[in-house]
Write a structure and sequence with these properties.
This protein is mainly α. It is built from 24 helices and no strands. About 4% of the residues have low confidence.
């Protein structure tokens, strides 16, 4: 056990840059670590407050139905499903595709300990999200129900085991996808397609729970049955935490722990063979000489960056999921009208809200698809090549911004056509539905690369660390969410003002911010890039 703890500790400290932050003597690095800590704490508090308010609103509805247990059931299921989604496409990178594999495997520790430490690394990453969702929900439940002492004990114990089973299931599926795709020549793209297909099928299956609209609209036993059908372990969890059933508590913990131990033991027996199979690449049988093409410096940098993007399945999956979800939402509204959705959710004016707020909804998916927040970090120890190349450094930075826009703008255009047809928006709403997301695409792309220049992580051993767990990605996402919360808050505070005018004014401000960031890159890009 001591070896597992040491390996997990070292991996987590390396992943989150804690070792450097704790031991650096550079005042600039210390100030940067302090500023980053304050930003992260502010983001955590903001997310926690949002989670608490959302749980409280749900609790009001469930209290009228006499089913307060549904609050914890829903939040537990949501935590598990989100953990499953996020782990599917990062499991292979954390478990197998890390640069210090040879060094780790040469240590005098058992392979099963290495496997257990890598799975625990995934577990700790998901535990953070679990706490952000479940602690506010548990607090709301305690306020509304005033349960006994056993609730607090069982609730805190089960918090540690909620994400274990989803992580193991997602790891198995992620490894299978990577293994199957590695059998083909275009392994990276096939892995991306397979993973997106699994996620989309899972989402579609979660909405098709063999229940009619009346059952869902009932919001009582039908909703509980739907949740327990989607994730049966939620029923065991509710029995343990809300009904204080010791047998359910023991079963929940034992199942999670045994699954973890069994998974680690079985995977350890084939770990080296699986790693070899996943890391094996196929080459073409023929090589044909072709004429060389000459491009401008910017176009060459852009094509290089585009090839780099599509060469990493983790990169595409993590930054492309927002655009995929946007397309899925846009297409699904062709089959389920906003009026019908409003009836199901008991929100009569949902269609009107969607027409007005759709630019911000689309922009949310755009913010989730920021490729630039990790584009500098992914250069890793090859950054010196770009630094020493005889090209304009702002051109290098803007080529990364251009790749981000290549990913987002076409999807925004397609979704715009679908949404103006399904939502039947007026001419002003239609224009804003296109312009606002385009502005946010530019804002997100330039914000991401500027933050990454300020907070680079070049010493990563696994791509997942730079793509998903670096400070630049977290700060960019928080700032992106804040930029969306501001207009949403203005809608709530200025109800008497036309929503289109609010969006128009805010869009002008965001466009000015984008112009300022572009000017900053052109003027300071050389200095920022060379000091990395």
């Amino acid at each position: 056990m001591i070896n597992i703890w040491r390996l997990t500790k070292l991996q987590l400290m390396s992943t989150f840059g804690l070792n450097k932050a704790l031991h650096t003597k550079d005042p600039a690095e210390r100030r940067k670590a302090l500023l980053l800590s304050i930003t992260i704490m502010a983001g955590v508090l903001m997310i926690g407050a949002f989670s608490f308010s959302y749980s409280f609103m749900m609790a009001m509805a469930f209290e009228e139905l006499g089913r307060m247990d549904l609050l914890l059931a829903i939040m537990m299921a949501v935590t598990s499903i989100v953990g499953f989604f996020t782990t599917v496409y990062k499991a292979s990178g954390v478990l197998f595709s890390y640069k210090d594999y040879d060094m780790i495997m040469s240590l005098p520790v058992k392979t099963s300990h290495v496997v257990a430490s890598r799975v625990l690394q995934l577990y700790v990453m998901n535990l953070f999200f679990t706490l952000l969702v479940m602690l506010p929900a548990g607090a709301v439940y305690a306020i509304q129900v005033n349960p006994g002492v056993l609730f607090y004990l069982f609730f805190l114990i089960t918090l540690l085991f909620i994400t274990l089973l989803p992580i193991i299931a997602a790891t198995i599926i992620g490894a299978l996808i990577s293994w199957v795709s590695s059998r083909f020549r275009a392994s990276k793209m096939i892995s991306v397609v397979f993973t997106f297909a699994v996620l989309i099928l899972f989402m579609l299956g979660s909405f098709n729970l063999d229940g009619d609209q009346q059952e869902l609209a009932d919001m009582g036993a039908g909703l509980g049955d739907a949740i327990f059908k989607l994730y049966p372990l939620a029923s065991v969890y509710v029995d343990a935490v809300c009904s204080y059933q010791v047998s359910s508590l023991i079963f929940f913990i034992a199942l999670s722990v045994l699954a973890f131990v069994l998974f680690s033991a079985v995977l350890a027996t084939r770990y080296k063979a699986i790693h070899t199979g996943l890391m094996t690449s196929r080459s073409g049988s023929k090589y044909t000489m072709k004429p060389l093409q000459a491009n401008s410096a910017f176009k060459a940098l852009y094509l290089k960056e585009l090839r780099r993007y599509f060469s990493s399945a983790n990169y595409v999956l993590n930054t492309g999921i927002g655009m995929v979800l946007l397309l899925v939402m846009s297409v699904s509204l062709l089959f389920v009208s906003s009026e019908k959705l409003g009836v199901v959710l008991d929100i009569p004016q949902l269609s009107e809200y969607l027409s007005t707020l759709s630019p911000l909804v689309v922009s949310l998916f755009v913010v989730l698809s920021c490729t630039t927040a990790s584009s500098i970090s992914l250069e890793g120890n090859h950054l010196w090549i770009l630094q020493s190349s005889p090209v304009s450094k702002p051109a290098i930075i803007l080529s990364k911004v251009a790749v981000n826009l290549t990913i987002t703008l076409p999807v925004i255009a397609v979704s715009w056509v679908l949404l103006i047809y399904t939502l039947r928006t007026g001419w002003m709403e239609s224009i804003l539905m296109l312009v606002i997301p385009v502005i946010y695409a530019c804002y997100s792309a330039m914000l991401g690369v500027i933050v990454n220049l300020k907070l680079p992580k070049l010493d990563w051993t696994s791509e997942v660390t730079a793509i998903k767990q670096s400070a630049a990605v977290l700060v960019s996402m928080i700032l992106g969410f804040i930029s969306l919360v501001v207009p949403a808050a203005l809608f709530m505070l200025l109800r008497s003002v036309n929503g289109n005018l609010i969006l128009l004014g805010y869009g002008v401000i965001m466009a000015a911010v984008c112009a300022g960031m572009y000017r900053y890159i052109r003027i300071s890009g050389e200095r920022l890039f060379l000091r990395l």
